[in-house]
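This section describes the prediction task in plain terms. A model, or a person checking by hand, is given the sequence of a single protein chain and must write out its three-dimensional structure as a string of tokens. No templates, partner chains or ligands are provided. The sample shown here is typical of the held-out split.
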Amino acid sequence: METVRVLLVEDHKLMRVGLKSLFEDQKEIEIISEAESGKEAVEKYKTIRPDVTLMDIGLPDISGIEATKRILELNSNAAVIMLTSHLSEQEVLDSLHAGAKAYVMKDINIEILKMIIKTVKDGAMWLDPQVVPILRDKNCGIIPPRQMSRAMFKEQHANLTQREYEVLKLVVDGKSNNEIAQELMISEHTAKAHVCNIIQKLVVDDRTQAAVKALKEGLV
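The expected answer:
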């Protein structure tokens, strides 16, 4: 399998060292270069043209958002993942408008981060579950709404049951399996089974991708 070449942009040395150590034994992902500032990130991008740029937002000179804009000006197909420790509505919107392909919290599970890096490199978009409701509520156009009648929904997704449709709407709201179970007055085991069925039927890898697809296609 081809190795994903990553540029790591992070101003805190301890964080850089920690992230780099997580990928040291990985054959599929390699940190090929590091940058401590936004301007340095742009210059490094020009030189090495990484497959993916893992970008911190809070940097000492220009922000990770501005650096992302400049990188996308160099290459409109650049894959940038925003990596942050806090959830700011404005930073979410600005990051995605700048062209970032993913918005990820720093407390993310490392295995999920690896998956995100690989899928973003292949052109996918990934959003932290906490981000999806922000985009839906703001109706900001990053995930374009498309109205779909119930008849059209049934025609295009006839294999999704009414109950699964109800569960999907709660998944889009960022609800956990336990919260879905309480909302619909079913067991958590049943809620989990419905979510698994939805993921399989929508042909996605996880509940976040299911939520994004639902929003993109106007299913909810």
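For orientation: Residues 150-216 form a domain with the Arc Repressor Mutant, subunit A fold (CATH 1.10.10.10).
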